[in-house]
From TrEMBL:
Sequence ranges assigned to domain HTH lacI-type in this UniProt record: 1-55
Species this chain originates from: Thalassobacterium maritimum
Entry-linked PANTHER family: HTH-TYPE TRANSCRIPTIONAL REGULATOR GALS (PTHR30146:SF109), LACI-RELATED TRANSCRIPTIONAL REPRESSOR (PTHR30146)
Entry protein name: LacI family DNA-binding transcriptional regulator
Gene3D superfamilies (UniProt xref): 3.40.50.2300, lambda repressor-like DNA-binding domains
Pfam families per record: LacI, Peripla_BP_3
Keywords: DNA-binding, Transcription, Transcription regulation
UniProt GO molecular function: DNA binding
């Protein structure tokens, strides 16, 4: 069986069958399914797309995301390093989730137009979009997001546990008046972090004032959100002795707000972040935070997609890491008022 035989049996042109084999756009779904049925029935096994044309993996980011924020840059770096070492191309694509639009199937079409044969997704996708990727035979792995269906891989950290561990650390220092600067709670990892904070406080018998939970203020620069939210907090609740920020960038902004209000960090107020960006070690004061292995997560996601394309693995893994508490100099015992 060869490409001409498949074309003849399916009633399609050789060019159309070629596009199907290359997973390219410009083919109706009806024609694509006709070709795929003949290919599967015949047992025809062409060389993989990556062998014929070279692997190109898309790094898919949600449109409007701060793409050069430290979180994204670390994941990008992990993917890019692996791509460089293994000799394939990684290309950045922006995508709006399906629930914001009436159309469907656009993620698959976008990947085909850009001739990408695999994807690392640093953006949430719906179950429908996940199944579209599986049907299109585009190996895909989510980073810092999860979708529990077979055929879509993911790699993430236990955000609930990470926030719990940070809160427990502050509680062990003697803090009880601890505030939380929320991220966008429509994103699962952010809501998990908030839940971990609340459950740790509850377990320790600490009642959390509603005002200690500061709603997210979307900004173009993440540090600005932390700064704005911390100013609101300090104006309304000067009794606070510690702040847990949803991520390191927000923690940087919170530290700036504290200093502007005449508070010393950590002598008057402790601040912790989340993620452990490369700059957190060198911030003044160096930031206590929860480390996510973002470089490794990016590299692992790219490796899994690459190995799936090369038929070295049959299933894309689902893996959840536990973060590592990194204690530096932004925390101290609570001040005595």
């Amino acid at each position: 069986m060869n490409i001409r035989s498949i074309a003849k049996e399916s009633g399609l042109s050789v060019a159309t069958v070629s596009r199907v084999l290359n997973n390219e756009s410009g083919v109706s779904e009806e024609a694509r399914q006709k070709a795929l049925k003949v290919i599967e029935r015949s047992g025809y096994k062409p060389r993989s797309y990556s062998q014929r044309r070279g692997t190109r993996i898309a790094i898919v980011v949600e449109a409007g995301a701060p793409s050069f924020d430290s979180f994204y840059s670390l994941v990008f770096t992990g993917i890019s390093r692996y791509a460089w070492e293994c000799g394939f191309e990684a290309t950045l694509l922006y995508f709006s989730p399906e629930d914001e639009r009436d159309s469907s199937g656009e993620l698959v079409e976008l990947l085909r137009k850009k001739r990408c044969n695999g994807a690392v997704l640093i953006a949430p996708i719906s179950e429908k979009e996940g199944r579209d990727l599986i049907a299109a035979r585009i190996p895909s792995v989510l980073v810092a997001h999860r979708l529990d269906i077979d055929g879509i891989g993911y790699i993430d950290c236990n955000n609930f546990q990470g926030a719990w561990d940070l809160t427990e650390y502050l509680l062990r220092l003697g803090h009880r008046k601890i505030a939380y600067l929320c991220g966008n709670l429509e994103k699962g990892n952010n809501s998990d972090r908030l839940e971990g904070f609340l459950k740790a406080m509850e377990k320790s018998g600490v009642d959390v004032d509603d005002g200690w939970l500061v709603e997210h203020h979307p900004t173009d620069v993440t540090e600005q959100a932390g700064y704005d939210q911390a100013l609101i907090l300090l104006e309304r609740h000067p009794e606070i002795t510690a702040i847990l920020a949803n991520n390191d960038s927000m923690a940087y902004g919170a530290v700036s707000a504290c200093i502007e209000q005449g508070l010393r960090v950590p002598e008057d107020i402790s601040v912790v972040g989340y993620d452990d960006y490369l700059s957190s070690r060198y911030y003044n004061p160096s930031l206590t935070t929860m480390r996510q292995p973002l470089l490794e997560m990016g590299a692992s996601a790219a490796r899994w997609v690459d190995e799936k394309l090369k038929n070295k693995i049959t299933e894309l893994p689902h893996r959840i890491f536990r973060g590592e508490l990194i204690v530096r100099k932004s925390c101290a015992l609570p001040r005595s008022d």
